[in-house]
User: Fold 3-(3-hydroxy-phenyl)propionate hydroxylase from Pseudomonas psychrophila.
Amino acid sequence: MTTRKNVLVIGAGPTGLLTAYGLAKQGVHVTVVEERATLDDSPRAMVYLPSSLKALDDLGLLEDAEKVGARGHAFTMRFASGYIGELDHRVLQEHTPYYYTLHFGQHVLAKLILDRFLQLPNTSVLWGTRFNRVLDNSDRVAIEVSTQAGEQRLEADWLVAADGARSSVRKALDIEFEGFTWPDTFMATNVYFDFAAHGYCENTMIADPVEWAVISKINNDNLWRVAYGERSDWSEEERQANVAKRYQHFLPESASYKLERASSYRVHQRCASTYRAGRVLLAGDAAHATSPIGGLGFTAGIQDATTLIEALGLVLNGHDEDVLDYYAGERRRIFLDIVNPLAIEHKRRVQEADPVKRAQDEEGFRKMASDPNYVRNALMNLFALVSTPYSADWRDRLSERDVREPHSMPLFTATDD
Ligand SMILES: Cc1cc2nc3c(=O)[nH]c(=O)nc-3n(C[C@H](O)[C@H](O)[C@H](O)COP(=O)(O)OP(=O)(O)OC[C@H]3O[C@@H](n4cnc5c(N)ncnc54)[C@H](O)[C@@H]3O)c2cc1C
Assistant:
């Protein structure tokens, strides 16, 4: 280990904490800077796809995750015709130990990692500390943060910006967040109801142009996520007041349920124009934002973290910085080539209004579900979110687009913010 070995991580979300933990395990001194006083426990991602299970396993976290999570095997798509297509992860059993999904809130994962992180030497979290601006980004990185005691200067060898989709670090460095915002407003509701007793598996999508929904198990106490689209021209109060009415489409008639919480949010397809600016590396939602249908954004953030842990670990052990450029290019490639188009396709399929296309979608699903090889390939394909390992010739695999400089021409047309 060289003398350059301290890292600042901005953001105590799952991406930041996972990166912080993975680096601290390698003996790096890591300080996490978080503007909130505690972890964010709002209802957000809660499905861990096989690639995430592998990432947690590699970091020694899967055993703990299994203790708090509920296992799921099936994914079903419900079509208006009444057909329910099913893909079962158990077809992967011969190929990977990760032939299931786990279900628990991302804040539970964050807490689990936080506890482990703080047990390691030379680790700390500065709660209630807000990143303001970058003061220096040359031999070392220096930033200004706000605390209750006033402004302070913090310094490190490297900085990981994992401060979410509205990343202040990304904005401070003037890195474009190229893409667009969907016109839709999504409702994320958590509800206690025994969906399993009514024939729902752990991961369900309901395809319908208006009453589309994603229904997923959150834990073994019968807490489930029901996500659906709601009017963007309504106030949050109006959307909240409409939850019971909307539930009539997803829950059996006269069902008795307990709503735990509900919140609405806007959905984006955006990607940072670069994931690296000098000594600053972007990861997770700070680097990319996507529709949550299919759970790919959160899943990609976990893979950003695992790739960054390895890349930064190598550099801190004397490897040249080329491996950080590889991190930036490879993760951007994976977002642009895989996550972004797949998430857009998931959203289209769930919301498709054209009856011809809906019939084609159903026909396609029937074909896929009837062939175990097809199912296996479809599910294994999600491992494509995992980075291709670093090698000195990594640039040959990437296009110019993946390794663009900050401030070059945008790839998408931004509509609004
Ligand atoms: C309502 C909602 C529902 C969602 N549902 C799903 C879902 O079902 N499936 C799915 O896959 N994804 C879902 N997502 C997306 C998923 O939550 C994100 O992909 C995930 O949170 C990304 O993790 P992250 O650690 O990169 O960022 P975040 O979780 O956003 O963490 C960023 C952290 O940085 C902190 N921070 C921000 N600015 C500063 C600053 N200036 N200084 C210090 N700290 C700062 C924040 O307080 C936060 O703790 C949902 C998102 C929302 C909003």
Observations:
- The longest helix spans residues 322-351.
